[in-house]
């Protein structure tokens, strides 16, 4: 005998409790035709086995069928009735009643199976469910004799997640029935969704209560949600009132409806049936999924019993002599090992947890022309597929309730493109995020990057922040507008110096040129020309030799220039003293030879400073990225601050002494007193270089070089203009004043 538990009715009516009389039995209402079809499938399978001479020969199977009324109390009472009967008393010496059952097909509900298997497992009575999918039932320590021909929720959940991943849906709603099946499935689903980066959208995950189903509240939450995809885990009975109430809403809101169900069996027809007269759920044989699971469950028990009857001594957990008095617990050992193929070509076996092979059909709910809902198979989820492809979909067969008939996107946040990083929105699930651009100097090359990578020192982020590109190298080049201007000024100053040299050479015998040692004037012009030309060493890409020469040439040229001016000033003072009786011997100690030696000596000191500086801490090219992060400033390091300071300090000392002496000699009685022009030139020189220091320190990159060049040019032009402009003015425009009497102040 085989027991069967089916939901013949959907509603259980409990009698009124009255403690004055024996309570009445509950009764059930609302006949469920689909479940009756499943029970008839069990009867059909048993009859088919009894007519099969190869399976269980000389053994006839029988059955007891009970109703669970979709209520745990009724289901549990039905199970105990199958196991122990319904008689109120029995004779211990002469047991009477129905033959004992060898196993139970059912129950379809996970909650029912949990309660029933907890008891039947103590006696190792096999129970093969055809629709209970709760993954909790896979615990062999709690349910040692439970089997099922439908995959567990763990497989169904993974099947759902495979569909979500296929269409890129990461923002989904969740509805589940408030029972063991719904709760366990919902928990497993949330874990699986989080593993692939998705999340559940509703702020409150909605449990469906069979007795207190708040349809209006569910509809309101669905309407308020931004999720387009809603996943439902519910027993079939729960869906009837839900679908009746919200069908219109459902069709308007959701573009497509999918379901994953067990494999269906194909019904073999003779061709003589008149399908025009069979239009009831009982006669509908297009979707025999639960019925097919019942069919496989019956055959699994039959094959296990057949193997038990073929017992070989020593190959089982008990002696083969014991099978003459068959016990249900003996069947569990062989049920665990069943391995057969149905007449429809499907393989049936159980894993170590009593679960069936993980294979699901993917169903698509489609609207027919008459407005009814028709379910079509559009794919398969098979974890044991030999191809390695778990999900197979026929996308052309899927119906999408959209204008384009294409799947919509259901994401909380769109994918972040390269060049941005994801930052989670506070208080929302992990798949709700904002895309923030990477900071300057950082990139992200992959979509949905969590962090941005910092570029290497000599690289910078591209405008789109998706790759590191070499930084722009900045230096004062000849092609730069600023470089062109400074180069032009340098060459102009050099040309003016050359022109003055030509003028002075042509008029070298005139009093203006010969006054105050013409040799010093030519030396001063040469040094000024060098000052103008040294600017060219500061322009262009820094190289080792240009870095070493630029400050050395600059320092030596200016010392040569200032030394010449200093000696000229000293000559003016010596000449004035020699004009007095008491100072006639002054010029004897400061003749031409002494003047040249003084200039060479003072210049030699600067040469020594430069030589020591270059030998100990030579300036060299350096790529500096501290001024501007996005650029590399190519500059010359000074090598030694002390050396550079001594170079500038020595020039400053000579300039200060020259200024002081010229200032003291500015009121000498000569009509053409050169000390006045020297004083003015030194005033310009000192003002320029005093202003240079703070401007140089505060200028970044190539502008610091430009400031130094400007100081060189400004001071050089100042010296050239202040000292030589008055002389050229007389030589060219007023030659009548270029006489000894006019210079000495004796001419009228």
Overview of the molecule:
- The strands form 9 sheets. Strands 4-1-5-6-7 form a 5-stranded parallel beta sheet, with helices on both faces. Strands 8, 9, 10 and 11 form a 4-stranded parallel beta sheet that branches. Strands 12-15-16-17 form a 4-stranded antiparallel beta sheet, covered by helices on one side.
- It is rod-shaped.
- α10 (481-506) packs antiparallel against α12, α12 packs antiparallel against α17 (702-733) and α15 runs antiparallel to α16 (674-698).
- A hairpin with a 5-residue loop joins β13 and β14.
- It is of the alpha/beta class and 748 residues long.
- The chain folds into 4 domains: 2-87 and 96-151 and 286-349, Rossmann fold (3-Layer(aba) Sandwich), CATH 3.40.50; 153-261 and 358-397, 3-Layer(aba) Sandwich (Rossmann fold), CATH 3.40.50.2300; 420-470, no CATH class; 481-668, Rhopdopsin 7-helix transmembrane proteins.
Q: Do you know the CATH architecture of the largest domain?
A: 3-Layer(aba) Sandwich
| H/I helix tally | 18
Describe the biggest sheet?
A: 5 strands, parallel
**Any idea what the shape is?**
rod-shaped
Can you tell me the CATH superfamily of the largest domain? Answer: Response regulator
Instruction: Tell me the Rg in angstroms.
Output: 53 Å
- How far apart are the termini? 153 Å
Mean pLDDT: 81
Give me the secondary-structure category. Answer: alpha/beta
Which CATH C-level class of the largest domain is it?
Answer: Alpha Beta
Total domains: 4
Low-confidence spans: 240-256
Strand order of the largest sheet: 4-1-5-6-7
Share of helix among residues? 40-55%
Q: Which strand-content bin applies to the residues?
A: 5-15%
